[in-house]
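Morning F.,

Quick status update on the modeling queue. The single chain you submitted on Monday has been processed. Sequence for confirmation:
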Amino acid sequence: AMYAIGFVYFGSILASIGNIKDGYRFVKLAKNIVQRFGYKDVAGEVLFMSTHTIGYVEPIQSTLECYLEGYTAALEAGD
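Structure tokens below.
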């Protein structure tokens, strides 16, 4: 589960230094890992961190939806 967090942070760093395409790919990978394997304990952090990169590529509405999903997942996990 921790590797999903690593992927989302790495993607966020890549996007922040200008490599938005690859950063977005790592963020999507992290989100897919969390959804596919049901890692509820890290879902909040992964979804919350992914909003930083998703905002570069997708409409702002999807960023807000992802943020709210992350907030809800974090509350459910006790974070």
